[in-house]
Fold:
Amino acid sequence: MYSTGYVTRHNGVTFITFSNIICYKTPTYTWRHTMKILGQYQRILSTDPILKEQCCICLETYKTGEYKRILPKCEHLFHKKCIDKWLRVGHGMKCPICRYDYSGYKR
Structure:
């Protein structure tokens, strides 16, 4: 049995409704804009002081050769793959530590 649904847009946000269940989808333009604002990521070097610390999203220690991303406003640091996924998968474009909202952030 398949449910029929419909798509509505309000203020640039897409809402998908199936049988009285509403799903929120982050607009693609917001995601692309946010990634552009966050800037470049960096490779972790063997001399980097963060090598003994761990990413608060995946709880793994940083290793030489992995990529890191430092959020520009709050300056919190994460694995690039972790923070990119965190921001994209429905956490409202907010820093996982301080909850600073990057959806409206401008450099």
User: Anything to note?
Assistant: The chain has a mean pLDDT of 78. The longest helix spans residues 28-38.
